[in-house]
Amino acid sequence: MATYFVTGATGFLGRRLVERLVARPGTSAVHVLVRQRSVDRFTAAARHWSRPDLVVPVIGDLGEPGLGVAVGALSGAVDHVVHLGAVYDFTAPEADNQRANVDGTRHALEFAEAVGAGLFHHVSSIAVAGDHRGRFTERDFDLGQRHHSPYHATKFAAERLVREQDRVPFRVYRPAAVVGDSRTGEMDKVDGPYYFLPVLTRLARLPKALPLVLPNLGGTNVVPVDYVVDAMTQLMHADAPSGTTYHLTHNGKQRVTDVFNALAAAVGAPRVRASLPVRLPRLRATRPVPAAVLNELGVPAEVLPHLDLPTVFDSTATVEALGGIEPPGFASYADVLVRYWAEHLDPERAWRNSHSLRGKRIVITGASSGIGRATALAVGERGAIVLLVARRQAELEEVRAEIEQGGGTASVHPCDLTDSDAVDALVKDLGVVDMLVNNAGRSIRRAVHLSVDRLHDYERTMALNYFAPLRLTLGLLPGMRARGFGRIVNVTTMGLQTDTPRFSAYLASKAALEAFGRAAGRELLTDGVITCAVRMPLVRTPMIRATDAYKAIPATSPQSAAKLVLRALTSETEVVQRSEGLAMELLRVLAPGLARQVLNLAYRLTGESAPEARTRPERPLPVLATALVRPLWRGLRR
């Protein structure tokens, strides 16, 4: 029976290697190093292992001497220490690479010695070859090559630490650039050849038979993750002396053009038919213009110089040790990688169907009644995953039941949006969000002269109508920016175009929300996040039911209002408005004096609804007479 201790077990390679180890008949336990703050990540990974009962988490840290692990019962009980923990990021600072790759390896060796491990398996990288030109075999290490990035230099230094010690028997594994699983396409991040895919998807609009001519793109070395973990599992248990090194690579030369063409075939793009006898110039990340262009294309400038490898890796000895097993040809699984990338990793995948709501996760506040409820039902009918937010859970449950009865999907998230702690918890609970509809609101109808001792009215409306949606937007925004897609719809009011009297508190709060959305939208445009204001007319909702003055005024239905929100969610417009609102706004701009008179007249022709000053509207004829005489009489004063 074999016992293992694995670092980096929750990483891309580590998760798969642990699965191979627990599936081996002779495995008694797999101990895995877990940082205290990464326990949740370990728990998530454990759900996918076939024998989680064999996996034992050990709290520690690569940055601590001896991994920060008390040897205790592990002394003499570990057959294999597998060191996978490292930083693989060309853009990471040198200090991070040093801490994880070099110091982490030193500490892992200390631990292996302390427990008396039978073998130390060090997962290195072909990066150790640096800028070496020509063939590089498993026996080669220091050939005078240089290393032009912190990642390359620290992987070389880490392997040197392993080679120069004699306290623990060891083996070294040098994987090539690792891509997704050749059978499922599963991958955890965009790297290496994946940087070609956004370009290729655009080239796919051209005729497939169009011949492409590009500069010589040089060489590369790519293998699928399933080959790496399968090969490691076999080689770890092979009979070989200490110091044996394995190349988990494509054997020999692999051209970047061949990889490019395999991906092009998978997406239906033209292929490279000829290469010019020149190479791409090396671009430095420190040059601002190339770096800015590459960033827009989704390619870190630090990565570009390393896409072309000058080294040809010889894995003859490794293939022999594996009994002739070699990695599959890239062209044989390129289509599998592309499918997985398109569904899970394409940074623009949300934009491909940006005008469709199907599958989109949409948060709707104030979803228990009125406009919010009608909008929730409408987006649910269109296949959205509706995240219902309001204070009253029972009413939200009714909306969810109606959505699910119609074949839709919804979840309930009760929350007092004026409570900052509750909103913070809500943001964590919601998870990934594609679209946000800030609909919850409060309206107060009261003349200014009746509000001189009611500052709290203004504070209450600002709390729910402005600060609440602002807090929720700021909480969800980082996720939208990270995914490169988002819609933020702020339900405001046509009153901003008409300056409706008696609504100074309400209009001020909605004006603040709309102004925030406009300003933020200018900033977020290049992040793929679009903001839109829906200037609602009067809507027959529970919010206006208690005001008698509204009963005789024409109002639209919540269902019609929901159509305006749908237009905002499925377009890239900045404002959704009705024609009558636009007409009033034009009147205000072209004839401001007349607009003021008209609204003052309307104010006087309608009564107060505030309980402490409820009045009947003034009689029309005296009001009209005053409206005609007052400007003339006051004009004579000048």
Task: Explain the layout of strands and helices.
Elements: E1 2-7, H1 12-23, E2 27-34, H2 39-46, E3 55-59, E4 80-83, H3 94-115, E5 119-123, E6 134-136, H4 150-164, E7 170-175, E8 177-179, H5 197-203, E9 212-216, E10 219-220, E11 222-224, H6 225-236, E12 244-248, E13 254-255, H7 256-267, E14 272-279, H8 288-296, E15 311-313, H9 316-321, H10 330-345, H11 349-352, E16 361-365, H12 370-381, E17 385-390, H13 393-405, E18 409-414, H14 420-430, E19 435-438, H15 455-483, E20 486-493, H16 495-498, H17 504-524, E21 529-536, H18 558-569, E22 575-576, H19 579-590, H20 592-605, H21 620-635
Parallel strand pairs: 1-2, 1-4, 2-3, 4-5, 5-7, 6-15, 7-12, 8-11, 9-14, 16-17, 16-19, 17-18, 19-20, 20-21, 21-22
Antiparallel strand pairs: 10-13
Relevant CATH superfamily of the largest domain: NAD(P)-binding Rossmann-like Domain
Termini, distance in Å? Answer: 105 Å
Q: Which CATH architecture of the largest domain is right? A: 3-Layer(aba) Sandwich
* Main sheet overview: 7 strands, parallel
Which fold name corresponds to the CATH topology of the largest domain?
Rossmann fold
Q: What is the total domain count?
A: 3
The CATH C-level name of the largest domain is Alpha Beta
Q: Point out poorly predicted stretches.
A: none
Strand content: 15-25%
Overall 3D form: elongated
Number of helices: 21
Number of strands: 22
Note the quaternary state here: single chain
> What class, by secondary structure content?
alpha/beta
Helical amount among residues, as a percent range?
A: 40-55%
The strand line-up of the biggest sheet is 3-2-1-4-5-7-12
The gyration radius over C-alpha positions equals 33 Å
Mean pLDDT, to the nearest integer, reads 88
Pfam families: adh_short, NAD_binding_4
Organism: Actinokineospora terrae
InterPro entries: FAR_NAD-bd, Maqu_2507-like, NAD(P)-bd_dom_sf, SDR_fam
Protein name: Thioester reductase domain-containing protein
